[in-house]
Design goal:
The complex is a heterodimer. Helix content of chain A is 55%, strand content 15%. Chain A has four helices and three strands. Chain A has a three-stranded antiparallel β-sheet. In chain A, helix 1 packs across helix 2. In chain A, 31% of the residues are buried. By secondary structure, chain B is of the alpha+beta class. In chain B, 53% of the residues lie in helices and 14% in strands. In chain B, the strands form three sheets. In chain B, strands 13, 14, 15, 16, 17, 18, 19 and 20 form an eight-stranded mixed β-sheet that branches. In chain B, strand 18 and strand 19 form a beta hairpin. In chain B, helix 11 packs across helix 14, helix 22 runs antiparallel to helix 24 and helix 24 runs antiparallel to helix 25. The chains are: A alpha+beta, B alpha+beta. At the A-B interface, helix 2, helix 3, strand 2 and strand 3 of A face helix 1 and helix 3 of B.
């Protein structure tokens, strides 16, 4: 997928995080990722959709058609219980990994 | 607000994915426009940051398809699960209906399972030999003498082996009984004597050790034995160290080289097996060289790509060459001898197949009756559920959905019924197998295997669909909408008519089954009551097969038989004693048909000579069996040392060959050289079992013969057990090493001879009773329903002065009328199908009027009883109450 310097799996975690706050359509999820990461992750927006559907297939998200703020019918996503569990696990793993790398880099400077 | 949306199929997938992506681009464009971009630039920018929409769409679609497929499956399983849950709940609320249906179906399916397990074990399973499908038996029948098989001589077997290219192997077989010494008490063992390639030919691997190898059947090879599984287990306790040990047989040491796996008792129930070189008879120079010494049977294996008919053609050509090349060995009497090749499977099962197939067909009819009855019950229940079905329709359940629900219920019931039936059948299969062992060697293969289970659930599922769908569609095309309309309504009459039709069908089918059972019962009664020509009560028989080496001459045989007869006769409880080569109750008697010449009536063409069965009997034979002497006299003490040989003939022979003149005093000869004077005529005896015709017989006195395989017959007042012991004691007193085998009363022997018709009759009778009860229940149910419908009408009639008797008659007439139509229909069907029983019937025609009338009478009586119970309820109506209620 387009120009991703994203760590593998990071997009999945970000999607789960976004949707964990409430049901969202695909566009809103993309916007949330752009804004919260301050565009630091240079993702092509289309890459979001295969990921969304993959997560749905794995049972981590479920679909929920609704009417958008612009009055159009749109596909919304909700997080499932399994999705929440996965998010917690991935977040913990990510933190552990980041801590370890941070520690290692700091040790070199000291 | 939520919109419920379902995407079906590929079109739904495309639409959903396209709309999701379009929405994204639209929203992005809006955002860019809001930040001040022109619409055109904003759209281009939105697409640029999105990536190639076509590529993304394709990627999403493939994910999406998997999501949809998964969800569809889940939905389907969920809804089936819901249907099942709902069905269980509704059935649980109707315990009476559920129990009635389960019992009916369990019986209907159970009988099919039981019979199918017999058919499967005996007729369908592959033979337990690796090459079972290619094995054939060779028989040597002589049509003009009505002999099924005269056997083959070893020379003929060797010729066949050398010249039949359509067989890729051929083994010879015969069975003898020998004394086996060396492990515990001396035993008489039935011994299969075969060429060394026998086991390789049929494809049997030993359980222990090995079977015979090439050369072990050559002259001078050291004697070896292979044990049957049954003998190894029962006589030797399954001793695994048996291979390598030795037994003494026929005064020689025999080394045990192997033990066979469990196999059908075919061709005979042999205890041990030996190669032909070990058999003292088969190794005699005369037997080996005499083309007419026909004593062996032949099993062959058809070569790949060839068939039994090829073998038969080749053998026929060979036989013709034999007859021209060796006229001495092919006397004119057997000039039409012709080799017959039969697949082994057919020859092993031919005695069981007709009965089994009839039983399976009738079991199928029983299931049909059961299904119709359940369709009835279901129909009645649907009518009672109109309100419930109407409510479900109002809640949005469509026609398909309701049908599916009804089908779920019926299939659930039928599968449960099938499971109960399977358990029930498992309980009787052992008994069936033991019983069928009396008439087929494959009985031990009757078990409940996966095929029987698959058959059970398959017919259960079919039955469930049938009785679930029939009541729905039988009511008219749009039953569901009718059910939806609900209410007590106009179509009551139509329903009564439909249920009447179902009852007529049930009665007709049950009638057909009862005719089958009735014919079998009449035939069986004939079999049992037809006089066998002798008195079989209180007679015990025992086989005494004299040791060949010890009793090689006439004199010791005669000393032995005289001694045994004298000692037995002197016992106080013994009324009569005889020794003979055969006893008449046995169904396994080999035919021993022979031509003979009457002095003064010699004919040149030997094929036109008179024929008779030859039996060799001691002087007390006719007295001991209670066979009357109808002319002349029986063998007596004076005949034993006389220089002029004597003979007796049976009444049938006297009538056929000496019509219009006295047979006594005439001279007859079997070979045209040695003549015997007929001294008496004995009453006719059914020599070959109760179903056989009375044969023409010639009796020769035992004292003139050198037969060793003898039967001792003792009539005694002391009871079977005591008499059996006495025979053993006395034979052992005369010769301590002489085994006594096959001790059986004549009554038991006769019972075994009629085991197959007895089983068929018993099962058909059970089926018939079952079908009758089910049909009667169906009839009673319809009448009860109709009485319920007509309560008001009856009330009004009575108020207008109708007698209770008249009402009773009205109801009973309706029920008996239905039954009568069913009986007529059933009689028509029975008349056109009963001929399939012909082969199983003895002394009864398949159109036997007494059976038809008797069964019809039974039906009318049962119909009366089934109607009177509900009809009495109609007469108990209080006219005032019913009229007020409306």
């Amino acid at each position: 997928m387009g120009g991703s310097d994203l760590f593998v799996g990071t997009l999945d975690v970000l999607i789960l995080k976004a949707v964990s706050q409430g049901r969202m359509h695909g566009y809103a999820i993309g916007r949330w990722i752009r804004q919260t990461t301050k565009d630091a992750l240079n993702v092509q927006e289309g890459a979001l959709y295969p990921a969304l559907h993959r997560l749905e297939r794995k049972g981590l998200l479920e679909e929920d058609w609704g009417v958008s703020e612009t009055g159009r019918e749109a596909k919304y996503y909700k997080i499932t219980a399994a999705g929440r569990r996965r998010l917690r696990a991935e977040a913990a793993r990510w933190k552990e990994y980041a801590d370890a790398v941070t520690l290692a880099l700091a040790a070199g400077e000291a | 607000m939520r919109v419920f949306r379902v995407s079906f199929g590929e079109r739904g997938v495309r639409r959903d994915v396209a709309s999701e992506i379009a929405f994204h681009i639209e929203m992005r464009t809006r955002e860019l426009v809001a930040s001040g971009m022109s619409l055109e630039r904003a759209r281009a920018e939105a697409i640029a940051v999105f990536g190639d929409p076509a590529l993304i769409e394709a990627a999403v679609r493939s994910e999406r398809r998997r999501v949809v497929r998964r969800r569809d499956w889940r939905d389907r399983i969920n809804s089936i699960g819901q249907d099942i849950k709902y069905a269980v709940r509704t059935l649980h609320r109707a315990p009476g209906f559920t129990a009635a249906v389960l019992v009916t179906l369990a019986l209907g399916i159970g009988v099919n399972t039981a019979i199918f397990s017999m058919v499967n074990g005996v007729l369908l399973r592959r033979l337990p030999y690796a090459h079972g499908d290619r094995l054939v038996t060779l028989e040597h029948p002589v049509r003009s003498l009505a002999i099924n098989d005269i056997g083959f001589s070893p020379t003929e077997a060797a010729d066949l082996r050398a010249s039949l290219s359509s067989l890729d192997g051929l083994a010879e077989y015969h069975s003898m009984s020998f004394d086996l010494l060396g492990h515990g008490e001396p035993r008489r063992v039935q011994t299969g004597v075969v060429s060394a390639d026998f086991f390789d030919l049929i494809g049997v691997r030993p359980l222990l050790g090995r079977t015979f190898i090439r050369g072990e059947d050559h002259d001078g090879a050291p004697p070896v034995l292979v044990l049957s599984y049954r003998f190894w287990m029962t006589a030797l306790g399954g001793d695994s160290a048996i291979v390598g040990q030795t037994f003494t047989m026929n005064d020689r040491q025999h080394l045990v080289i192997g033990v066979l796996p469990p196999l059908p008792a075919y061709p005979d129930r042999n205890d041990v097996w030996m190669p032909v070189s070990s058999c003292p008879f088969r190794s005699r120079p005369r037997v080996k060289s005499d083309r007419a010494a026909r004593m062996v049977a032949i099993i062959g294996r058809v070569a790949q790509g060839r068939g039994p008919t090829d073998a038969q053609r080749e053998a026929a050509a060979l036989e013709t060459r034999w007859h021209t090349a060796y006229p001495d060995a092919y006397s004119p009497a057997i000039k039409d001898a012709a080799v017959k090749v039969t697949p082994l499977r057919a020859s092993m099962t031919q005695s069981a197949a007709p009965a089994f197939l009839v039983l399976l067909a009738v079991a199928g009819l029983v299931l049909l009756v059961a299904c119709i009855n359940v369709a009835h019950l279901t129909l009645a229940r649907h009518l009672g559920r109109q309100r419930e079905l109407a409510i479900r329709t109002a809640l949005g359940a469509g026609r398909r959905r309701l049908l599916r629900q009804l089908l779920t219920e019926s299939v659930l019931l039928s599968l449960a019924g099938g499971a109960i039936g399977l358990v029930g059948a498992a309980g009787v299969v052992g008994a069936l197998a033991r019983y069928t062992a009396r008439f087929t060697p494959r009985a031990e293969e009757i078990v409940l295997d996966w095929r029987v289970a698959a058959f059970t659930f398959a017919i259960a599922a079919i039955a469930g669909v049938a009785f679930g769908v029939i009541p729905v569609f039988a009511q008219g095309r749009d039953v569901v909408s009718r059910l939806r309309d609900g209410g007590a309504t106009t179509s009551g009459n139509a329903r009564v008519r439909l249920r009447g039709l179902l009852v007529i069908g049930e009665v007709a089918l049950a009638f057909v089954i009862l005719i089958g059972a009735g014919l079998m019962i009449r035939s069986f009664a004939r079999l049992v009551t037809t006089s066998p020509g002798y008195d079989l009560q209180n007679v015990v028989t025992a086989r005494v097969d004299l040791n060949f080496t010890k009793y090689s001459k006439a004199e010791p045989i005669r000393r032995f038989t005289d001694d045994v007869i004298e000692r037995l006769s002197s016992n106080g409880s013994v009324k009569a004693v005889a020794i003979a080569t055969e006893f008449p109750a046995s169904s396994s008697n080999a035919q021993n048909l022979s031509t003979f010449v009457v002095r003064g009536r010699e004919v040149a063409d030997s094929s036109r000579l008179p024929k008779a069965e030859i039996s060799i009997v001691s002087q007390g034979y006719f007295g001991a069996l209670g066979v009357p002497i109808v002319g002349g006299r029986a063998f007596g003490p004076a005949d034993r040392d006389t220089a002029v040989p004597v003979a007796m003939i049976s009444l049938a022979a006297a009538r056929k060959y000496f019509a219009g003149g006295d047979a006594v005093g005439r001279q007859i000869s079997l070979d045209g050289h040695q003549w015997a004077t007929v001294i008496g005529v004995a009453g006719d005896v059914r020599q070959f079992g109760p179903a056989s015709d009375v044969p023409e017989q010639i009796y020769l006195p035992l004292t003139l013969a050198t037969t060793r395989d003898l039967r001792v017959l003792v009539r005694s007042g002391a009871g079977a057990a005591a008499t059996s012991t006495l025979i053993r004691q006395i034979v052992h007193a005369v010769d301590p090493n002489q085994p006594v085998t096959d001790v059986v009363t004549l009554e038991d022997a006769r019972r075994d001879a009629i085991a197959s018709p007895r089983l068929t009759t018993a099962l058909l009778t059970a089926f018939a009773i079952l079908a009758l009860v089910i049909a009667a229940a169906g009839l009673g149910g319809v009448i009860a329903y109709s009485v319920g419908q007509r309560t008001q009408e009856f009330g009004i009639r009575m108020a207008l002065g109708a007698e209770r008797q008249a009402i009773l008659a009205l109801v009973v007439r309706q029920g008996v009328g239905l039954a009568a139509i069913g009986v007529l229909l059933g009689a028509l069907v029975a008349r056109s199908t009963a001929h399939s029983l012909t082969g199983l019937l003895y002394g009864v025609q398949p159109t036997d009027a007494i059976t038809y009338l008797g069964v019809a009478a039974v039906f009318i009586v049962v119909a009366l009883i089934a109607c009177v119970v509900p009809a009495r309820r109609a007469t108990a109506i209080d006219p005032a109450a019913t009229i007020r209620a409306s």
